[in-house]
Write a sequence for this structure.
């Protein structure tokens, strides 16, 4: 079985991660998949940076599933790099049956399918999302099988889905983002979308906060260093309570639903 991982960050951003001794989102995703199985062949593509993207498009039919990960980009910036990702997602939705769209991946998938993404108006998730509530549709959906009805999870986002694609089903919400979990069809794809990161550890989220310290303070994501330190402590406390299996339940459920494990 072969799956495709789509890297949402630009190559330059990933290099800065590497220079800061932080795993890229693709590396984190591979680690998480390997927790459940070592029997998958995994290809990786970066639509924004790879020069051979047209060749990849020709072979999309061979993949048994696609996981599209996170990014620091903003979909409404509409840069050439973002347009390339939107174009690639459209191809994927026409050629790959099962797609797990994580955070930025969900925003790209929703935009291609006719939905809309804007800057969050009720705050942001800075390493953690609290009190995500699975609704009645979500409780019946395989995405949330064996998941607590209300849960906390790693998350990092300043943008949110404000308009769902036609026919989409909302599965989960919290006080910051109404759209935290969705399911919709587009092209031949059955797309599970989540506005958070079950595949990323809380330790990495804490590292990202320190890594992005100056930017977060400049953009008023935190009032000052004291507030940032208190927030990191909240994540550290949650990390002590969290288990790897409960945190990554959505990834496990998607792999099982897609007959990949």
């Amino acid at each position: 079985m072969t799956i495709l991982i789509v890297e949402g960050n630009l190559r330059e951003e990933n290099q800065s991660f590497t220079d800061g001794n932080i795993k890229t989102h693709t590396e984190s995703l591979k680690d998480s998949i390997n927790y459940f199985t070592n029997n998958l062949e995994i290809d990786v593509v970066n639509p924004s940076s790879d020069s051979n993207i047209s060749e990849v498009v020709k072979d999309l039919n061979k993949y048994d599933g696609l996981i599209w990960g996170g990014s620091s980009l903003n979909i409404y910036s509409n840069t050439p790099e973002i347009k390339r990702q939107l174009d690639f997602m459209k191809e994927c939705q026409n050629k790959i049956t099962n797609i797990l769209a994580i955070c930025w991946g969900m925003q790209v998938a929703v935009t291609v399918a006719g939905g809309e993404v804007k800057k969050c108006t009720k705050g942001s998730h800075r390493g953690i999302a609290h009190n995500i509530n699975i609704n009645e549709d979500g409780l019946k959906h395989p995405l949330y099988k064996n998941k607590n009805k209300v849960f906390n999870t790693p998350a990092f986002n300043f943008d949110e889905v404000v308009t769902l694609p036609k026919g989409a089903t909302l599965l989960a919400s919290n006080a910051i983002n109404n759209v935290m979990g969705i399911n919709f069809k587009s092209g031949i794809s059955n797309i599970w979308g989540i506005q958070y990161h079950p595949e990323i550890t809380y330790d990495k989220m804490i590292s990202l906060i320190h890594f992005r310290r100056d930017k977060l303070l400049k953009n008023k994501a935190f009032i000052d260093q004291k507030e940032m330190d208190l927030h990191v402590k909240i994540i550290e406390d949650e990390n002590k309570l969290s288990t790897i299996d409960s945190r990554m339940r959505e990834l496990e459920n998607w792999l099982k639903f897609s007959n990949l494990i």
Notes: The two ends are 9 Å apart (CA to CA).
